Amino acid sequence: MVKDIKKIVLSYSGGLDTSIILKWLQETYQCEVVTFTADLGQGEELEPARKKAEMLGIKDIRIVDVREEFVRDFVFPMFRANTVYEGQYLLGSSIARPLIAKHLVRIAQEVGADAISHGATGKGNDQVRFELTVNALDPSIKVIAPWREWEILSRTQLIDYAERNQIPVPTDKRGEAPFSIDANLLHTSSEGRVLEDPAEIAPDYVYQRTVDPVDAPNLPETITIGFEKGDAVSLDGVRLSPAVLLMKLNELGGKHGVGRLDLVENRFLGMKSRGVYETPGGTILLAAHRGIESITLDRGAAHLKDEIMPHYAELIYNGFWYAPEREMLQALIDRSQTHVEGEVTVRLYKGSASIIARTSPTSLYSMDLVTFEEGSGNYDHHDAEGFIKLNGLRLKTLAARSRRLGV
Ligand code: ARG
Prior knowledge:
Blueprint: E1 7-11, H1 16-29, E2 32-39, H2 47-55, E3 61-65, H3 67-79, H4 96-111, E4 115-117, H5 126-137, E5 142-144, H6 146-149, H7 155-164, E6 180-183, E7 188-191, E8 221-228, E9 231-235, E10 238-239, H8 242-255, E11 260-266, E12 272-278, H9 280-296, H10 299-317, H11 324-336, E13 342-349, E14 352-359, H12 367-370, H13 381-405
Parallel strand pairs: 1-2, 1-4, 2-3, 4-5
Antiparallel strand pairs: 6-7, 7-12, 8-9, 8-13, 9-10, 11-12, 13-14
This protein binds arginine.
Residues 93-94, 124-126, 180-182, 189-191, 273, 275 line the site of arginine.
């Protein structure tokens, strides 16, 4: 443990765990602690966090609304790649970590702190994401991860510590918390405790921001999303900022039960874990983005994007947002989005978000080429004959050999 620390910036949610961490840092390091609380659209009041920090003797309290930055500079760039981890996870927690860590580093530099601290536990991906970001942005800053350092090993010991230090423990926190939650504008993720056994069906109360598709409205709702350079810019013809747009999509998706996911994933640290994710707006956005790309991207470009996507997703999942290879892939992805513009119509209905129409001024779709009716002559049917012949040549050769060998 590094003891000669003069000032620490703590990522502070105002919750019980980080309040205890705050106290523990003050006691252990006997130095000033600055708190940073990010408004990521987690849907919680943040003023209580200020009050609590004040109560714990903090002089420098930073509460920053990072919602627009989060969606514009992190969520949207990621969505340009249609990013999903292991085929399904939309990376709602993963993509928020580099942003939080970036601000921790910025504040540490501003106030001359020599360390930052976070409340991520010792088994999860989040500690890796925070710390790799700090390494990338300012290697001179030390990282204090109390969950890996202190002697508190259980929830009971945590509550004891709080009581000994006059940190108020809400009554619902006295028992075991039923599961761990991480929420922001992109998603709510729930894991641990009642969710740990993947054979057990997740109880209904786990879901926080989507209705059960069974209880969703019986009538579908149709919306139109506008895109420019691969980013969503409008909803039903009204231009909206990135965060406001995602907020509205979350409301719509939540109401129609869109974006629930119960997943067993492979953590970077080696174990499998089961999580329940709700990403209502993101699920709509992913479908819509694929919809607009389907008419504006060339096949070669589209397929290359799809090839690199799992690698790009893994980099984000593993905490390498600020690694050169992520930035290189981003450059490639961004370059592909130059003409990704137009409008997509999406129908929301009982858990699904289906694309039902798409239009673009930069469309590559050619009715003339594809039509079953007579086209203008840009396509000669006889060419298809030679095309198939040449492509079939090696298959014919292989088949002939098989016949010769009798296999
Ligand atoms: N497993 C997810 C990830 O690594 C979520 C982690 C945070 N979630 C939580 N409920 N604490 O991205």
